[in-house]
Amino acid sequence: MKNIIVKFSLVVFISLSALYVHSQCTNTTSYGSATAPTDNTPVTITTVQYESEYNTISNVVAGETYQSSSDCGSYITVRRGTYDGTVVDHGWSPLSWTATVSGTYYIHYNTDAACGTASTFCTTTITCTSCGGAVCSNCSNPHLIPSGTTFPFSHSGTTCGACNNYSSSDACGTSYMNGEDFVYEYTPSSNVNISVDLTTDASWVGVIVTQGCPDVGTCVGIPATSSGANASGGPYSLSAGVTYYFSVSTWPTPNCIPSYTLTLTDGVVTPPPPNNLCANATTLPCGTTNLAGTTNGATDIAHGTGCTMSNYGVWYTFTGDGDETTITSTAASGYDHEMAIASGSCGSLTNISCHDSGASGGTESVNFTTTLGVQYYVYIAHYSSGSTTTGNFTISRSCGNVIVGSENCEDAMAVCAEEGVGINFGAQSNDPYIDAPADQCSFLRNPTWWYFQIESLGYIEMEIASSCGDVDFACYGPFDNITCDPLDLTGSGSYTWYDSGNSGTTYTGTYPCVVDALALPSGNLADASYSIDATEILNINPVSVGEYYVVIIGNYANCDGVIDFNQTNIGDPGAGGVDCDIVSDCSITSISATTACTGTTFTLTGEIFFSDAPADGTLTICDGVNCQTFYPPFTSPTPYTLTNLSADGLQHQLT
Fold this sequence. Notes:
Elements: H1 2-22, E1 29-35, E2 43-49, E3 53-60, E4 65-70, E5 75-80, E6 86-92, E7 95-98, E8 103-110, E9 122-128, E10 143-145, E11 153-157, E12 182-186, E13 192-200, E14 205-211, E15 218-219, E16 224-226, E17 230-238, E18 244-250, E19 260-268, E20 282-283, E21 288-294, E22 314-319, E23 324-331, E24 337-345, E25 348-355, E26 363-369, E27 375-382, E28 392-399, E29 413-414, E30 423-427, E31 447-456, E32 458-466, E33 472-479, E34 495-498, E35 506-509, E36 525-529, E37 535-543, E38 548-554, E39 561-567, E40 577-578, E41 587-591, E42 594-598, E43 601-611, E44 619-623, E45 626-630, E46 638-646
Parallel strand pairs: 1-3, 10-12, 20-22, 29-31
Antiparallel strand pairs: 2-9, 3-8, 4-7, 4-9, 5-6, 5-8, 11-19, 12-18, 13-17, 13-19, 14-15, 14-16, 14-18, 21-28, 22-27, 23-26, 23-28, 24-25, 24-27, 30-39, 31-38, 31-40, 32-37, 32-39, 33-36, 33-38, 34-35, 41-43, 42-43, 43-46, 44-45
């Protein structure tokens, strides 16, 4: 009996020993990973864990106590270093264990202590039971970058557990703000340019830079975002004494970034542009073409132009000569600028106009007639009044009489396209706008009338492009002669339109005015387009020699700018041509003048010098309402005499 008892005890001992050895399981298949939580909020690792796999937990902190759980009631083995490394603890879920060293840990899941396996989906979680409650990163609890920081500045961390405080409804309006956010605060002691580089172990990441807290502040430049693991942006121009926030966040899939490093570089002081002050405005003479400009480094100075736009801008100036002038500015990609025109003196300006096309990287253009001797100022800045966003642009100014098309068909102007150069004419706003002519589509408001004659057969393609907004047109023909008869300037009553753009599927109806492009001629309506675009394409195929076409162009946007009307298919196989002999290139080169006083009045005599005189029309020279008109044939120079001019001591101008 004694021997039996001994044998029985020995068997029990061996069985228990075997059970102990097998309870430290090692699976070879990895699935699921997470960053160790920094508070007592449970983190879900995966909802599809097999009890034959392990997952990886990074950033585990030595001395903290964690709880690993599986809703399948799994047997859990915790290892560190490698997936088959040192056993830290093991037991049934939920298993509480304490980290012996900081680093990466591996959690193995099995069905029992004998390391059984199953392919049932389990939800696995990890909780730091020794950590306190979550401490959110936000503008009230930011990571402070000292104002005297020497760049580059670098900081590593995680957004997991930092809380999702801000979203795409806040400043910058980006979905890359929809994950958990880690926020940095920085108030520079001097103007700086800051570039941002973010490296992570995640994807769909971004850094959003704002002046003021994201939920109440304004966006500074384009956010640094990427669908990949790393994102870069900038440089961002930051002004001394202004508080900025750098928010690290995600799309939000994933909802947080387990590990990242944020690096801010450069820190070079950006001096204000030389024309930052109105008093230091850059002179903008006639003939200026694509002069490079920038608002980078501009300081916060109230501009007083009467336009609602940023105070971080630059100035240009010129003196009026009584002639027409066109000023055009084009912003670099990502910079949405506005152009203000004012007259007077710095600190006491009178608003003339404000121009904002509403497009980032867009073009602003204005054409107006100056007053002789008046000082004009052009102010360029971001369109938003509260914005500190700055950027690069070019600015041009042309002078002289910009063509203004006729509002009446009877006075339509001839147009041609010689060597690809057509005409540029002024688009002018009207208050109220001028209605489209009777029997024409309402889209053709603020109309101008044109005509051209075909010189060679083929097909014609022309571009009608406005610098300031929506432009529309209708083209009628072919005619043997120019006509303004309303019965001629109409369609057939059945219209075939492109469904979108100038090609593709079509549809047919009886309504003559739709927001689309005509696909086929309709009666005398050779082509038309009433889209919302600033560029329209006129196509006529085929054309024959001698035919006339009448075109009405509508400035639907009711804006100030320039409209280009050019043939774009010159030189292409099968292209037709437009006759330029009907267009006069007359140019008045100079005018001489000699005065003779006769008491309270004076007489002005001289000669008018010109080239390429037309065969018809008139030549008129005026001083105010005192004019002299000449009729063809014209010979240069033509002598003139203006009498009874007022000797008022003022400067006079001949037109």
